[in-house]
Amino acid sequence: MSITLYVPGDAAARALGADEVAAAIEKRAQEFGIKVHVVRNGSRGLFWLEPLVEVLTSRGRVAYGSVQAADVGSLFAANFLEGGEHPLRLGNIEAHPYLSRQQRVTLRRVGVIDPRSLSDYLAQGGGLGLAQARQLSPAAIVQAVTDSGLRGRGGAAFPTGIKWRTVLDTGADEKYIVCNADEGDSGTYSDRLLMEGDPYCLLEGMAIAGLAVGAKRGYLYVRSEYPDAIALLNAALDNAGDWLGDFQIEVRRAAGAYVCGEETALLESIEGRRGIVRSKPPLPAIAGLFGKPTVINNVITFASVPDILARGAAFYRDLGVGRSRGTLPFQLAGNLKFGGLVEVPFGSTLRELLYDYGGGSRSGRPLRAVQVGGPLGAYLPESQFDTVLDYEAFAAIGAVLGHGGIVAFDDTVDMAKQARYAMQFCAHESCGKCTPCRIGSTRGVEVIDRIRAGQREQIPLLRELCDTLTDGSLCAMGGMTPYPVLSALNHFAEDFE
Fold first, then answer.
1. How many CA within 13 A on the CB side of residue 250?
2. Where would I find the H helices in 32-93?
3. DSSP result, 440-481
4. What is the pLDDT of residue 194?
5. From-to residues of CATH 3.10.20.600 in the chain
6. CB 379 within 8 A of CB 369
7. How many angstroms separate the CA atoms of 220 and 241, rounded?
8. What ranges make up the beta strands (E) of 229-346?
9. Which fold has domain 415-496?
10. What is the Cα–Cα distance from 361 to 338, expressed in whole angstroms?
11. For tag attachment on the chain, is the N or C end more exposed, with fewer CB atoms within 10 Å?
């Protein structure tokens, strides 16, 4: 009889030495003649404790972290295979305050199951949503998603049910489901954690979408920098057998451009062309992939659907506040003591995330600014840390929740430099199709450089340029670049002097 251990195969854990730890455990066990079965699970998202090793004992799973290969000898000496005491022993990781205070719904199996095992997924409640969907009419599935209040988790927060109903009601000989897994925002990794830790949940959500709108084929467009996620998704598809029925999913490696996260540029890329933003209308729900009606949602949106079907729309709708229903995985990064993933219902505050979970700054200095929603999100000062995590509350202060990425900065940050970075990022990543984005961002870098050199009379010109980008850009790439620039200018004006 072998002893089961869990050592994350997640990219972050591997970068911190998880592969070496797994190999050291297997080697030491072989030397002692002990049979072990090492499961490469996903990361639970407590990155300061990675590599996090869990041992399945008669008393449940006992965690140790962060474990390095050099620690394996002392762990065996402490009889860790039976949950023995050791300075790295954490006990039941689910009782850790960082996890126990969360309400994990969409990512509850990440770090718990073997991501390659369909039977493990089904044993942990997976598959119930797809089974329920197969008992319903397409209209009933769409109605359940609509009633849940689910909105797109990719950043735009568009009501998912409305998008699906549009595709359902549009006549066509073929329809498509497309998952946008081109997760390129700074400070975001929830898509990667889900794909590397619970890939069947994503596949199930896409299959339910196919039943809802009458699509038989889906495409999973995954960021090219995520080779581990791509490998796991393909392995899950190979192991799925006939579980997905006649719904076929193909994994596509993304083109490596930030703009391909925009849904129409993504479609161009899948079709084999350069990722350039399309003019709208027509909307992709009417004429999308190969000119056919197409549902496009991101990873967390699709992964939220199985629970809505399995547990009922009311379960999901009863979480959250206002028009922001359900949960959102927030990703803490930057200058924070405890960076990691926090899934909670809408309604908490930014301050709670930064201090109750993040533990304040890693440097020990005061937090001065926080960027929420990726590289095109606004910079929020300390006076706005009590803003409720809600789409409308953030819109009211000129900010966005986006994909839930949060990057913190202490009081040593130069916010004029950060504003310049935002303009430079847009200039570098622009697809070049529209003039405001292509030319405006380049001129914006030059104007900010003149302001930083002392030409404060250029500030009105910068504001006018931001208006042009907002009102004239073809997509959110240029349209949102003013968010970080103007927020830095409005809240941290002293850095531009």
1. 9
2. 72-77
3. HHHHHHHHHHHHHTT-GGGHHHHHHHHHHHHHH-SSHHHHST
4. 98
5. 320-410
6. yes
7. 18
8. 248-253, 294-298, 320-321, 324-325, 327-334, 340-345
9. de novo design (two linked rop proteins) (1.20.1440)
10. 9
11. N
Residue with tokens 């300061």: 48
Residues in the chain: 497
What is the tens place of the pLDDT at every residue in 176-197? 999 999 998 888 999 999 999 9
Whether 476 shows a pLDDT value over 80: the answer reads yes
Locate 427 and state its tokens.
Answer: 């200039």
Determine contact, residues 232/196, Cβ cutoff 8 Å. Answer: yes
> How far is Cα 335 from Cα 367, in angstroms, rounded to an integer?
8
Nearest 5 degrees, angle CA 12-CA 221-CA 180?
85
Among 451, 440, 441, 384, which Cα is nearest to 417's?
Answer: 451
Determine the Cα–Cα distance for residues 59 and 72; give it in Å rounded to an integer. Answer: 21
Per-residue pLDDT tens for 257-305?
889 999 999 999 999 999 999 988 999 999 999 999 999 999 999 999 9
In order, the DSSP letters of 313-325 are: HHHHHTSEETTEE
* Phi and psi torsions of 276, nearest 5°: -120, 140
Distances (CA, A) of 49 to 44, 342, 409: 10, 15, 22
Answer yes or no: are the C-beta atoms of 213 and 302 closer than 8 Å.
Answer: no
Identify the CATH number of the domain defined by range 3-100: 3.40.30.10
Q: 118-317 maps to which CATH number? A: 3.40.50.11540
> pTM for this one?
0.95
